[in-house]
Amino acid sequence: MSLASFDFVPLLPAGLPPPVVRWTGRVKYDFTGGNNDPDGLPLEGLIAAAEAVLRREGRTLATYGLNSGPQGYRALREFLVAKLKADAGIACAADDILITSGSLQALDLVNATLLERGDTVIIEEDCYQGSINRLNRLCVTPVGIPLDRDGMRVDALATALDDLKRKGIRPKYIYTIPTVQNPTGTILPVDRRQEMLRLSAVHGVPIFEDDCYCDLVWSGERPSALYAMSERGGVIHIGSFSKSIAPALRVGYIVAPWEVMSRILALKTDAGTGALEQMVLAEYCAAHFFKHVPVLRRGLRAKLQTLMESLNVHFGAAAEFDEPKGGIFLWVKLPDGVDTMKLYQPALAAGLAINPGPEWSVNKGASRSRMRLCFASPSHEEIHQGVATLAEICRREFGVPAPGAKS
Fold first, then answer.
1. Tens digit of each residue's pLDDT (9 = 90 or more) over 168-198
2. The domain that contains 217 carries what CATH number?
């Protein structure tokens, strides 16, 4: 009997996600995912850093953990101590930081530490798909809080916490992306951060702060992290180098009090995050990070401008959006008659990929006509051509925008 004929289906446990199709390459116009600007990648600097650190410390690769212990390469953690203090106001030590295999592993570790089947968490109504999917797979109930142009509405958060308390439900955490929210690109103001922390203390619910996009604020200035503002230590903070340096390196981190960190470490049984990536990042970032990021931001903001101009030209008033305050995404609202889940397939057939709004929301009905467009990876010309192609497909499928639409 050939291996190809063996039937694995009866052996699969219940509850697995649907099987994926084989990858056949990226589409011509790709507005999906968290890919970054290839021209903004500091390639020569990374090459030089790799050679320098390998010549100096390469033989430590023979040891799990690079002689730095289970929390990750110490030089990288020490860089993060300085970075987090300088831009987020976080005062922490290297031993308060755990290096992870991207922020997704950080999410998984925090969830594994705090959540069990049947729990409830509070989350932004429109939010990171990876966070929403993980909660669904864990059979955890997400309570969505609406956002406005300043991020999560803390009045709605207060109402939700009160309602849950009356039902005898204590959420396990409040998950938020306060600094350049995904997908909306909003930034939570200081007064809302203070109120969120107050509500957290009153209700005894910790805050799970995802700061993965915080380096991409257009102004270069951001509010202090919730972790920095907390006087009680009731915040777990995660971040990533995916948006500031390169997503394929898969390096993220967790900052947490030791009583939580010690529990997280007990669950990180992978023998350590990729060592070479950590070594190269530490070497490069110590000398170049704060010079590199402003250059990256300028390139990304120029691409955002191209995307917004293209949408105005080809969709006119049919595409509504607020200019994000940073990041790599534009959250676009099309007329109510457009179903972006149904727009996705004909667009893909034409070589164009979008992220339908319902995949990025816990309120799928309200986000039915929305889409998330990543502008970082395509070139300016690809953005122009891709938006024109999308408008043609949307007009054919839904009659929107009207022929000859202009801003």
1. 999 999 999 999 999 999 999 999 999 999 9
2. 3.40.640.10
